[in-house]
Design a protein that fits this description.
alpha/beta, Rossmann fold, binds NADPH dihydro-nicotinamide-adenine-dinucleotide phosphate, seven-stranded parallel beta sheet, single chain, binds 2-hydroxyethylsulfonic acid
Length: 253
């Protein structure tokens, strides 16, 4: 039985990824900052699928918390075969002359530094075993830059670059690295980006048929279950209503 660790499993895409692996009988480590949500998801996965689940509550931005959480793993839980770097967010949407500096710090610390802290803590045991698979959840925002997307887009471009860098660095150690870059997915992402403004967040998805978290989870699961000699390197998926960050159509057009 393989162990998978999913960061940001308390909502959206991460929750769907944890669920799809739990259902397939993997041992699943779920992480996030919201303890109650972690407990609820753990209960649900154990009850529905008889899955083995471990919750680790920590903030990916805090290096000490990350290291303490990873160091706390024992026995089979320690042998993480699949790491899904999913925790991330956009905070605010404004032009460079007006955006909040704290928002920029939050996105850089979470999307880039958090992803690096976890990867640095977990990759040595993959290297030692000469086996492992790291998934980085990027975005189409890491392929293109859009108006008022500045720092969010920059963090996802950094994720794209780090995905390539990790694949090169870990090549000799037989560790696979896959970038998964979704377009619009209906999650709490917009609610977080617009700081709890539910009306504004809802409008983002209106009239489209956005991806569901499960659509992304299925892609991750497919990539994770290819034979040992096959690595899917870079996967971009969007709803059929979205050709790119700039071109999309409402369902009825
Ligand atoms: P959600 O807001 O629904 O989920 C985000 C998850 O990240 C939550 O579980 C949250 O957990 C976790 N998280 C955020 N900050 C931290 C932190 N500092 N420490 C630990 N966990 C954290 O958004 P999505 O599911 O949509 O986003 C998941 C990933 O997908 C992100 O990297 C996002 O950039 C990317 N993405 C999303 C798209 C979309 O349209 N929704 C499209 C392309 C990419 P908690 O708050 O409990 O800590
Ligand atoms: C999230 C998708 O288009 O809002 O990464 O940047 S988008």
């Amino acid at each position: 039985m393989k162990t998978v660790l999913v960061t940001g499993a308390t909502a959206g895409i991460g929750e769907a990824i944890a669920t799809i692996f739990a259902r397939a009988n993997y041992r699943v480590i779920i992480t996030g900052r919201r303890k109650e949500r972690l407990q609820n998801l753990q209960d649900e996965l154990e009850m529905n699928y008889g899955a083995q689940v471990l919750s680790l509550c920590f903030d990916v931005r805090k290096r000490d918390e990350v290291n303490r959480a990873i160091d706390s793993l024992t026995g089979d839980w320690k042998e993480v075969e699949i790491l899904v770097n999913n925790a991330g967010l956009a905070m605010g949407r404004d032009t460079v002359d007006k955006a909040e500096l704290d928002d920029w710090d939050t996105m850089i610390d979470t999307n880039i530094k958090g992803l690096l802290y976890i990867t640095r803590a977990l990759s040595p045991q993959m290297v030692k075993r000469k086996s492992g698979h790291i998934f980085n959840i990027g975005s189409i925002a890491g392929k293109e830059t859009y108006y008022q997307g500045n720092v969010y887009c920059a963090t996802k471009h950094a994720v794209d670059s780090l995905t390539k860098a990790m694949r090169i660095d870990l090549l000799e150690h037989n560790v696979k690295v896959t970038g998964v870059c979704p377009g619009i997915v209906e999650t709490e992402f917009s609610l977080v980006r617009y700081k709890g403004d539910a009306e504004r967040a809802k409008k983002i998805y209106e009239g489209y048929h956005p991806l569901r978290p499960r659509d992304v989870a299925e892609v991750v699961f497919f990539a994770a279950t290819r034979p040992p000699h096959v690595c899917l390197n870079d996967i971009v998926l969007t709803p059929t209503t979205q050709a790119s960050s700039f071109y999309s159509r409402k369902n009825n057009q």
